[in-house]
Amino acid sequence: MCLKFESKGVLHQVLATCTINIVNYAHGAALGWVSPFLPLLQSEDSPLESGPVTVEQGSWIGSILCLGGLFGAIAYGYLTEKIGVKKSIASLCISNMSFWTIVYFGTSVYHLYLARFLAGVTGGGVIVTFPLFIADISDSKVRGALGSILALAGNSGILTMYIVGDLLSYRTVPVVMISLPTLFAILMTLIPETPQSLLKQRNVAQAEQSLKFYSGLKSDQECTPEFKQQFEKLRNFILNSKLQSDRLQLQDFTSPAAKKGILIGIFLMFLNQFCGVFAILTYAVSIFSESGSTLSPGTSAIIMGAIQIVGTIASFIFIDLAGRKVLLLISTYGTGLGLTCLGVYSWMRSQSVDLTGLDWIPIASLSLTVFLFCVGLCNIPFFVLPELLPAKICNAGNTISMISITIFSFISLKILPILLEQIQLHGAVAIFASTCFIGGIVIALFIPETKGKNLVSPENV
């Protein structure tokens, strides 16, 4: 029997989700920071005392974030078990504030390496803690929508950085952006820890108060026998789950369901990164400089960032209506098609083909690519994981997948600047487009539909 959340409870869930996503918005801005400012750092007008950044150094500025993400994923996987999900999320403000502070005061490329590593720590923490928080507090009817806010906030942060990076100076941007993690730290004091985390810490009374908050109940008088019965079920489930998780053994990972779930998770993380969109967004201004678009690189990046928001909103609308598999297929093949269009245009331009009147193709093809990526590949892999993995190894399998995405992300960000120099834009996007088309076949043949599958959360224990 499911716990019926009051409308006020859903409102509390939405407000809590929006609050935690302030730091995700700030992290998105940190992700997008490379795009407008790497060309400046590589120019003779570089603000660094150490001088212009080389191509090799630029690739490290872009990719070292992922090493920070790997560290963050492992560290926050540990922290959530020790101090709780909400407290772990609240601590993300430290690494994000550190990024903006170092960017402002940094004078050498090594300072930027450290800053980007710390930005990655924030990202690793986000991808580990946010799905857990939303699964813990949300009604099944709004879980997909609340989860989509993760991508919406991050993408909005990227777009914001494209805009402010085009308008404000190198030193002004961090002064403005550090206000976001500051606001986040203040607002996080207003929302309670999740009931599940409190129960794991044996704080039963606080856990009951937390569940009341996320259920929309104001006082003990509003607590029905159904609520109390459901809380007891949740309490017993968490205690039993904790005992079971302490007894994880190798054979828990060797069952057919476990192996399939973990392999699909790793594959989806691979496809999420090697479709190339995250790398393209990171180096957006440089990509548009290479593409031959007649629009300024900064303006093109802003347009693409806006399209990214539209795609995320489309995913927000359809995630709980259409099947996960359908959206993944549309997204994967659509992303490959958009990249193919860009690659063909770039190759024809390199062959000195007359492309008069076709200079709209780079921005149109990349906008299509980003839109369709955001419809599915951007966030659905993170929904599918807990719906595929057996309950006993769900946390461990999720951590394995999160670690894998940071490794894949590091590789894609590290090699893209080098690919652009060695095989040009059309060669790089040919690799990414091929990955999409092959990935679509794998999705069609091996990944099941998981829409409607219950997760372990207050309303369905």
Explained architecture:
The chain is mostly helical and 461 residues long. It has helices at 7-32, 34-42, 55-83, 85-90, 92-105, 109-137, 143-167, 172-177, 179-187, 195-200, 204-215, 225-245, 256-274, 277-282, 284-291, 297-318, 324-350, 361-375, 380-388, 394-422, 424-446. The longest helix is centred in the N-terminal third of the chain and has 29 residues, at 55-83. It is globular, with a radius of gyration of 22 Å. It starts with 6 loop residues before the first helix and ends in a 15-residue tail after the last helix.
Helix-strand blueprint:
Blueprint (H helix, E strand, L loop, with lengths): L6 H26 L1 H9 L12 H29 L1 H6 L1 H14 L3 H29 L5 H25 L4 H6 L1 H9 L7 H6 L3 H12 L9 H21 L10 H19 L2 H6 L1 H8 L5 H22 L5 H27 L10 H15 L4 H9 L5 H29 L1 H23 L15
Helix pairs in contact: 1-5, 1-6, 1-7, 1-9, 1-11, 2-3, 3-6, 3-20, 5-6, 5-9, 6-7, 7-16, 13-19, 13-20, 15-16, 16-18, 17-18, 17-21, 20-21
